């Protein structure tokens, strides 16, 4: 359900010259269009908080590809996890991040932009396609937020992650 804005242009004598209806898709409208449901925010798995706000920046802790409170799959890229699977997990990390955002802000409409994300990919020694995995997260953020979803990014291969997760992503958002 897009929000509509009606624009009318008048001449000096207040006679309407032009009228147009502009449909604006909010991030939550986009999620509905993409058939993505935001789950409850995942509970921290240790002694930390899901996010910290400093001024208009919101720093999110690392998100794992949890679904229904459980890790979707364990393993490393280049061994037991394919690039396609890891791309799906990267999207799940974004969905989990959105759930933390919504829980903290009340609405995704308060997100001004995604500033940066750091992706950590559990990788076999010879695996070097970490950016390809993280593209799925970047692309989903763009689909949801448009230009405000474009961000700076780091894609890092690591030898292991918590719970033997194949991927972990942390985020920085600018909020209103």
TrEMBL record:
Residues 31-167 form the Endoribonuclease L-PSP/chorismate mutase-like domain. Pfam families: YjgF_endoribonc. This is Endoribonuclease L-PSP/chorismate mutase-like domain-containing protein. It comes from Dissulfurispira thermophila.
